[in-house]
Amino acid sequence: DLSDPDQPEATLRIIYANTVEADVVCEHGSFVRSSDYSDLQQRCYWDYFRIYTPDGVEAISGQAPAVPGEWLLTGEALPGEIRRVGPGPGGTVEFGGLLVLPTASTRSVDVAYHLPPGVLRPTQDGTYTYQLKLFKQPGTHGVPVQITIVPPHGFQMTTDATWKVAEAGSYTWQGRLYVDQDLQVQFRSIDDEEHQ
């Protein structure tokens, strides 16, 4: 949400789906009972997720699914916290947490935060430029991604065919992540557009 260039905000939702149909108990360490890889796949999905945000992010809040104590070796439940880990690669800030996804289920990790004001750069001709870098996770292939951008108030995106106008004046891009991608968009004043 870039509607206020001085206080841009972002919301991230990561959706996880465990397509394994086997009815198994989520049990920490159960994978050591078999060395057969196909057996290892027929279980709950355990993931320590990481989220990398631009440096200067403030007031991050978020929620991940809680993990019951009986699923963990410690026996202590985890409330689904997303914690600041520290500096990440390339000048980013790293947040992370534990996700356990039972078989035949879907869960999401949701995070909202304030972006640093400098992410929306004004140009000399009165437009704004916004750039977003998407990093492909090693070992994945074609992860689906959807991005929705709300432009600065009084501005509209100068789009190419890959961005679609969505509801309430926002713009949406959908794609699959096969390699790292740099997305850069520009916003022009609606008044300027009307006078052309």
Q: Which range best describes the helical content: under 10%, 10-25%, 25-40%, 40-55%, 55-70% or over 70%?
A: under 10%
Radius of gyration: 20 Å
Number of strands: 13
Order of helices and strands: EHEEEEEEEEEEEEH
Helix/strand/pairing class, anyone?
A: mainly beta
Treating each run of at least 4 consecutive H or I residues as one helix, how many helices? 2
Mean pLDDT: 88
Describe the protein in words.
- The chain has 196 residues and is mainly beta.
- 5% of the residues lie in helices and 46% in strands.
- The protein is built from 2 helices and 13 strands; from the N terminus they run E-H-E-E-E-E-E-E-E-E-E-E-E-E-H.
- The longest helix has 5 residues, at 37-41.
- It is elongated and about 65 Å long.
Give a quick rundown of the structure:
By secondary structure, the chain is mainly beta. Helix content is 5%, strand content 46%.
What is the element layout, followed by pairings?
Blueprint: E1 9-18, H1 37-41, E2 45-54, E3 58-63, E4 83-87, E5 92-101, E6 105-114, E7 120-122, E8 128-134, E9 143-149, E10 155-157, E11 163-165, E12 171-177, E13 181-189, H2 190-194
Key traits:
196 residues; mainly beta; 4-stranded antiparallel beta sheet
